[in-house]
Protein backbone atom coordinates (compact mmCIF):
# COMPACT_ATOMS: atom_id res chain seq x y z
CA UNK A 1 0.00 0.00 0.00
CA UNK A 2 1.37 3.40 -0.97
CA UNK A 3 1.01 5.92 1.86
CA UNK A 4 1.10 9.61 1.02
CA UNK A 5 3.07 12.27 2.87
CA UNK A 6 -0.15 13.12 4.72
CA UNK A 7 -0.42 9.60 6.08
CA UNK A 8 -3.25 8.07 4.10
CA UNK A 9 -3.72 5.70 1.19
CA UNK A 10 -5.44 6.87 -1.98
CA UNK A 11 -7.60 3.74 -1.85
CA UNK A 12 -9.29 5.12 1.27
CA UNK A 13 -11.05 7.76 -0.84
CA UNK A 14 -14.00 7.07 -3.12
CA UNK A 15 -17.07 8.57 -4.74
CA UNK A 16 -20.56 7.55 -3.64
CA UNK A 17 -23.02 5.85 -5.97
CA UNK A 18 -24.98 9.10 -6.29
CA UNK A 19 -21.82 11.02 -7.20
CA UNK A 20 -20.97 8.46 -9.88
CA UNK A 21 -24.47 8.78 -11.34
CA UNK A 22 -24.09 12.56 -11.39
CA UNK A 23 -20.72 12.19 -13.11
CA UNK A 24 -22.26 9.97 -15.79
CA UNK A 25 -25.11 12.42 -16.37
CA UNK A 26 -22.57 15.19 -16.87
CA UNK A 27 -20.97 13.63 -19.96
CA UNK A 28 -21.43 15.24 -23.37
CA UNK A 29 -21.05 12.17 -25.56
CA UNK A 30 -22.27 8.56 -25.52
CA UNK A 31 -18.63 7.45 -25.83
CA UNK A 32 -17.67 9.38 -22.69
CA UNK A 33 -20.64 7.97 -20.78
CA UNK A 34 -19.63 4.41 -21.71
CA UNK A 35 -16.01 5.06 -20.73
CA UNK A 36 -16.96 6.36 -17.27
CA UNK A 37 -19.47 3.56 -16.71
CA UNK A 38 -16.91 0.87 -17.56
CA UNK A 39 -14.32 2.45 -15.27
CA UNK A 40 -16.80 2.83 -12.39
CA UNK A 41 -18.82 -0.36 -12.79
CA UNK A 42 -16.07 -2.77 -13.85
CA UNK A 43 -13.17 -1.26 -11.89
CA UNK A 44 -10.78 -1.26 -14.84
CA UNK A 45 -7.41 0.43 -15.08
CA UNK A 46 -6.96 3.06 -17.80
CA UNK A 47 -4.74 0.89 -19.98
CA UNK A 48 -7.16 -2.04 -19.66
CA UNK A 49 -10.07 0.08 -20.84
CA UNK A 50 -8.05 1.64 -23.68
CA UNK A 51 -7.14 -1.74 -25.18
CA UNK A 52 -10.63 -3.28 -25.19
CA UNK A 53 -11.61 -4.51 -28.64
CA UNK A 54 -15.16 -4.92 -29.90
CA UNK A 55 -14.58 -8.66 -30.30
CA UNK A 56 -13.57 -8.87 -26.61
CA UNK A 57 -17.17 -8.20 -25.56
CA UNK A 58 -19.53 -11.17 -25.18
CA UNK A 59 -23.09 -9.91 -24.94
CA UNK A 60 -24.37 -13.45 -24.28
CA UNK A 61 -22.48 -13.73 -21.01
CA UNK A 62 -22.14 -9.97 -20.37
CA UNK A 63 -18.38 -10.29 -20.00
CA UNK A 64 -15.37 -8.47 -21.42
CA UNK A 65 -12.02 -10.15 -22.06
CA UNK A 66 -9.42 -7.93 -20.38
CA UNK A 67 -5.66 -7.97 -20.83
CA UNK A 68 -4.36 -6.92 -17.44
CA UNK A 69 -1.01 -6.46 -15.77
CA UNK A 70 1.81 -8.79 -16.82
CA UNK A 71 -0.22 -9.66 -19.93
CA UNK A 72 -2.58 -11.82 -17.88
CA UNK A 73 -6.10 -12.25 -19.26
CA UNK A 74 -9.21 -12.06 -17.13
CA UNK A 75 -12.95 -11.71 -17.63
CA UNK A 76 -14.69 -8.57 -16.40
CA UNK A 77 -18.39 -8.93 -15.68
CA UNK A 78 -20.75 -6.15 -16.75
CA UNK A 79 -23.18 -5.87 -13.82
CA UNK A 80 -25.23 -2.97 -15.22
CA UNK A 81 -28.04 -3.67 -17.69
CA UNK A 82 -27.97 0.00 -18.66
CA UNK A 83 -24.28 -0.25 -19.51
CA UNK A 84 -25.07 -3.22 -21.75
CA UNK A 85 -27.66 -1.14 -23.61
CA UNK A 86 -25.30 1.84 -23.84
CA UNK A 87 -22.54 -0.38 -25.23
CA UNK A 88 -24.83 -1.82 -27.88
CA UNK A 89 -26.03 1.65 -28.86
CA UNK A 90 -22.46 2.98 -28.95
CA UNK A 91 -21.28 0.15 -31.20
CA UNK A 92 -24.31 0.52 -33.46
CA UNK A 93 -24.40 4.28 -33.91
CA UNK A 94 -20.89 5.55 -33.13
CA UNK A 95 -18.85 2.62 -34.43
CA UNK A 96 -21.41 1.88 -37.18
CA UNK A 97 -21.87 -1.77 -36.19
CA UNK A 98 -18.19 -2.61 -36.51
CA UNK A 99 -17.43 -6.22 -35.61
CA UNK A 100 -13.79 -5.78 -34.69
CA UNK A 101 -11.23 -3.16 -33.80
CA UNK A 102 -10.68 -1.06 -30.71
CA UNK A 103 -13.81 -0.11 -28.77
CA UNK A 104 -12.36 3.35 -28.21
CA UNK A 105 -10.27 4.27 -31.26
CA UNK A 106 -7.54 6.89 -31.07
CA UNK A 107 -8.85 10.44 -31.13
CA UNK A 108 -5.74 11.95 -32.75
CA UNK A 109 -4.27 10.83 -36.06
CA UNK A 110 -0.86 11.26 -34.41
CA UNK A 111 -1.68 8.41 -32.05
CA UNK A 112 0.21 5.45 -33.51
CA UNK A 113 -1.17 2.69 -31.26
CA UNK A 114 -4.72 2.99 -32.58
CA UNK A 115 -6.56 3.18 -29.26
CA UNK A 116 -7.50 6.06 -26.99
CA UNK A 117 -4.64 7.47 -24.92
CA UNK A 118 -4.48 7.59 -21.11
CA UNK A 119 -4.31 11.39 -21.36
CA UNK A 120 -7.59 11.49 -23.29
CA UNK A 121 -9.27 9.20 -20.75
CA UNK A 122 -8.09 11.52 -17.97
CA UNK A 123 -9.48 14.52 -19.85
CA UNK A 124 -12.89 12.89 -20.36
CA UNK A 125 -13.25 11.99 -16.68
CA UNK A 126 -11.97 15.35 -15.42
CA UNK A 127 -14.27 17.26 -17.78
CA UNK A 128 -17.33 15.36 -16.54
CA UNK A 129 -16.23 15.94 -12.95
CA UNK A 130 -15.95 19.69 -13.47
CA UNK A 131 -19.35 19.85 -15.15
CA UNK A 132 -20.85 17.88 -12.26
CA UNK A 133 -19.04 20.22 -9.81
CA UNK A 134 -17.39 17.27 -8.13
CA UNK A 135 -13.99 17.48 -6.48
CA UNK A 136 -11.68 14.55 -5.85
CA UNK A 137 -12.29 13.44 -2.23
CA UNK A 138 -8.54 12.97 -1.86
CA UNK A 139 -7.31 16.35 -0.51
CA UNK A 140 -4.03 15.91 -2.41
CA UNK A 141 -5.85 15.84 -5.76
CA UNK A 142 -8.22 18.26 -7.44
CA UNK A 143 -9.92 16.64 -10.43
CA UNK A 144 -11.89 13.42 -10.64
CA UNK A 145 -9.64 10.85 -12.31
CA UNK A 146 -10.02 7.27 -13.61
CA UNK A 147 -8.30 5.74 -10.60
CA UNK A 148 -10.81 7.19 -8.11
CA UNK A 149 -13.50 5.38 -10.12
CA UNK A 150 -11.62 2.10 -9.74
CA UNK A 151 -11.34 2.66 -5.99
CA UNK A 152 -15.02 3.61 -5.86
CA UNK A 153 -16.00 0.38 -7.60
CA UNK A 154 -14.07 -1.63 -5.02
CA UNK A 155 -15.52 0.26 -2.05
CA UNK A 156 -19.09 0.01 -3.35
CA UNK A 157 -18.75 -3.75 -3.91
CA UNK A 158 -17.33 -4.16 -0.41
CA UNK A 159 -20.10 -2.00 1.11
CA UNK A 160 -22.69 -4.22 -0.57
CA UNK A 161 -21.25 -7.21 1.27
CA UNK A 162 -19.09 -8.81 -1.41
CA UNK A 163 -16.02 -10.59 -0.10
CA UNK A 164 -12.50 -9.31 -0.66
CA UNK A 165 -11.90 -12.41 -2.79
CA UNK A 166 -14.62 -11.22 -5.18
CA UNK A 167 -13.23 -7.67 -5.13
CA UNK A 168 -9.80 -9.12 -5.97
CA UNK A 169 -11.21 -10.89 -9.04
CA UNK A 170 -13.13 -7.83 -10.20
CA UNK A 171 -10.09 -5.55 -9.93
CA UNK A 172 -7.69 -8.09 -11.39
CA UNK A 173 -5.23 -8.01 -8.50
CA UNK A 174 -2.67 -10.79 -8.91
CA UNK A 175 -2.36 -11.15 -5.13
CA UNK A 176 -5.05 -11.32 -2.47
CA UNK A 177 -2.62 -9.44 -0.20
CA UNK A 178 -2.83 -6.43 -2.51
CA UNK A 179 -6.62 -6.34 -2.19
CA UNK A 180 -6.41 -6.83 1.57
CA UNK A 181 -3.84 -4.03 1.96
CA UNK A 182 -5.93 -1.61 -0.11
CA UNK A 183 -9.48 -2.44 0.92
CA UNK A 184 -9.23 -4.46 4.13
CA UNK A 185 -9.31 -1.16 6.03
CA UNK A 186 -12.13 1.34 6.34
CA UNK A 187 -12.54 4.19 3.91
CA UNK A 188 -12.22 7.80 5.08
CA UNK A 189 -16.01 8.25 4.91
CA UNK A 190 -16.56 5.07 6.94
CA UNK A 191 -14.15 6.27 9.62
CA UNK A 192 -15.81 9.71 9.73
CA UNK A 193 -19.24 8.11 10.07
CA UNK A 194 -18.08 5.84 12.90
CA UNK A 195 -16.48 8.78 14.72
CA UNK A 196 -19.65 10.88 14.46
CA UNK A 197 -21.79 8.02 15.72
CA UNK A 198 -19.59 6.91 18.61
CA UNK A 199 -17.48 9.80 19.82
CA UNK A 200 -20.49 11.29 21.59
CA UNK A 201 -20.75 8.15 23.71
CA UNK A 202 -17.10 8.47 24.66
CA UNK A 203 -16.98 12.16 25.51
CA UNK A 204 -20.66 12.90 26.10
CATH classification, class level: Mainly Alpha
Strand ordering within the main sheet = 1-2-3
The total count of helices amounts to: 9
Q: Shape from CA axes?
A: globular
Strand content: 5-15%
Number of domains: 1
CATH architecture: Orthogonal Bundle
Q: Roughly what percent helix?
A: 40-55%
**Main β-sheet description:** 3 strands, antiparallel
Radius of gyration: 18 Å
Q: Helix- and strand-based class?
A: mainly alpha
Output the helix-strand order.
HHHEEEHHHHHH
Report mean pLDDT, rounded to a whole number.
88
CA(first)-CA(last) distance: 36 Å
Low-confidence stretches: 1-5
State the total count of DSSP E strands: 3
CATH superfamily annotation: Intergrase catalytic core
Find the CATH topology. Answer: hpI Integrase, Chain A
Features of the shown structure:
mainly alpha, 204 residues, 6% strand, hpI Integrase, Chain A, three-stranded antiparallel beta sheet, 50% helix, single chain, globular
Amino acid sequence: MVISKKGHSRSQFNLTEDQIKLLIKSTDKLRDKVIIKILAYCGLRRFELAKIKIEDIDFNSNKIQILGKKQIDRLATIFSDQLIEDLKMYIQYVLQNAKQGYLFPAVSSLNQVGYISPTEINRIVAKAGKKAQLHNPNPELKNINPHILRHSCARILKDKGLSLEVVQKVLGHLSYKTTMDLYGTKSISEMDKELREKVGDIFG
